[in-house]
Amino acid sequence: RLVREFVAQNNTSQIKHVIQILSQEFALSQHPHSRKGGLIGLAACSIALGKDSGLYLKELIEPVLTCFNDADSRLRYYACEALYNIVKVARGSVLPHFNVLFDGLSKLAADPDPNVKSGSELLDRLLKDIVTESNQFDLVGFIPLLRERIYSNNQYARQFIISWILVLESVPDINLLDYLPEILDGLFQILGDNSKEIRKMCEVALGEFLKEIKKNPPSVKFAEMANILVIHCQAADDLIQLTAMCWMREFIQLAGRVMLPYSSGILTAVLPCLSYDDRKKNIKEVANVCNQSLMKLVIPEDDEMDEAKQATAPPAEPPSEEPVPEQEAVSSGESMFTWAVRSVVRLLSFLCSSERIQVTLNLDGIVQVLDCHLHDTSIGMMTRIAVLKWLYHLYIKTPRKMFRHTDSLFPILLRTLSDESDEVILKDLEVLAEIASSPAGQTEGHGPSETPDPRPGQVELHIPGRNSQLSASGMKGLECSPSTPTMNSYFYKFMINLLKRFSSERKLLETRGAFIIRQLCLLLNAENIFHSMADILLREEDLKFASTMVHTLNTILLTSSELFQLRNQLKDLRTPESRNLFCCLYRSWCHNPVTTVSLCFLTQNYKHAYDLIQKFGDLEVTVDFLTEVDKLVQLIECPIFTYLRLQLLDVKNNPYLIKALYGLLMLLPQSSAFQLLSHRLQCVPNPELMQSADGSRASAGSKRSAASNIDYTELLQHFDKVQHKHLEARHQRAGRAEQLERRGVL
Description:
Blueprint: H1 2-8, H2 12-27, H3 32-49, H4 57-67, H5 73-90, H6 98-108, H7 114-133, H8 139-149, H9 155-170, H10 180-190, H11 196-215, H12 222-232, H13 238-255, H14 263-270, H15 281-296, H16 305-312, H17 326-331, H18 336-358, H19 363-375, H20 381-397, H21 399-402, H22 406-415, H23 422-437, H24 469-480, H25 489-504, H26 506-523, H27 526-537, H28 543-559, H29 564-572, H30 576-589, H31 593-602, H32 606-615, H33 623-636, H34 642-647, H35 655-667, H36 672-682, H37 698-703, H38 712-745
């Protein structure tokens, strides 16, 4: 009644005096009953003031908020009730004081007393109604407080925060999306709350934000939220990780190349998820979409971004050009308006181009992440496959930039060939084949047979010069092979290191050697592969490995469907390239006598095969040697040598073929292979015709007229030299074994 009288008299000083007495002497008194009375009195003042209460809100609210911290729960309830009455009367006038009200309510939301909590909920709903119906809410001033409170660990406080975010999000005049980067991290942390209700509320809030993002992508600050999502995509909580991954998927699809600068972080988060099992199937599927979408953002233009940036960068000092006077420009037929428009267009185009250039691919960061994942032996198969797909994609789209990293990637790519998964090895071979064949890896100014100064850390293949004419012709054949222009210095480095790996890991050669070489023949040119490997093996110091490797290559050459074309090329030796290839293979094949004979059978050099078999009597015949002869007999019965078996019908023109086969028969003990070959030779018609002099068989010589420039005498001499080396090596190994045995006895 007293306040109403003062209002009627417009006596503001007395009104302030009454409020001051109620605040200082009662609401802030040491006696609890006085504080209760003061709170009731302040609420009564607000009711009496009516619409004028907005003029005194600071004086009315502050003492009430102080009582929110009172130790007496009944007093806190009275304070809550008093503030409810004050806010109900003032309505929109309380918005300038919203932050202090929100701060006080956030504390009451976690109050242990149910009555206080119930009273705070009533006040909270009232305040939400006021904010919803008003268009004067100060969002900018509120965001710092929201950003601070959102990291609360109290469940009730979190529930209070989420409820307010949902309310603000629903108000059309309040654009909370602009400030999402400031609260997104806190929202994801609340998503991991133990309370299902709070998690559900947070899911709804994040879902609403994502809907708004999809509706209006141009106004979204994708770049500011990218790293937040990267962090939560690696969360241990499945719900947080799945939600963050879904957001990442939408960001990549909506923002496009804006996300490229964050590719390394995204890959760090996404790649491990690709190896999840069915328990995390949803996360795995979304991560796969993220990975594929991100990969599509890399374009060939990224390989030229550095040059483009340099080309469009403004010069340090502008060129000294004489300015064109405005009058001269106008008089030359261009109006001042047109000149101004063109200037603005040029300025805008420059700004737009600069903005595009700023979105560049962080290739160094991406390669570092991929390299780390390849080195990590604990990652799953699907992750390793995805890493290799990324490397292949980058070598296709940005080859020039990627070759800066090839020296560092090359060792781990070679080690990956020992992976347990065939799929991983296939992808690894695709990457290595692309490295070996990409024009971007070509060494400028040096051919494969030259000896340039090697770059640090790069292994170069130096092919030594040979005095014989065959060596020169062999090299010529390598240079003229169909795919040589697409081969680069890494091709030879790859071949050398692949053979080194086979030499150091014999198990890899036994289990995966044929598989690896066959796949390489599909991905690269088979002739180049066999030519280079034969040339490298020719200088191999480990003769036992050279023999094993030659046997492996020969088996692949004779049996693999991928090498059908190469076999046909060698079968006739009609071209200089095929003859050069034969000579190159022959020199290395000499590490294994039986494979040398099989190569002669393949190339229809039957007389030379017979000459070689005649020399087998001087060799040390071991069980392994006889086993290889046995395998050769089995091969002769295979479809690969159908033409050879048919030539047995023409005894007149193929006497040395029959002699060579009889030579193999004489080498074999009485075994199943002996019986097999013996039965085959019994089918040869007119065996009497085999007794013929060499000179009476002009037709047999004419069959090899195309290969008349091959010096078979020199080839036989080379065969003798190689076998002599092998004999010495065996004696040395036997001597070392005997010494070790003696030491053991001593």
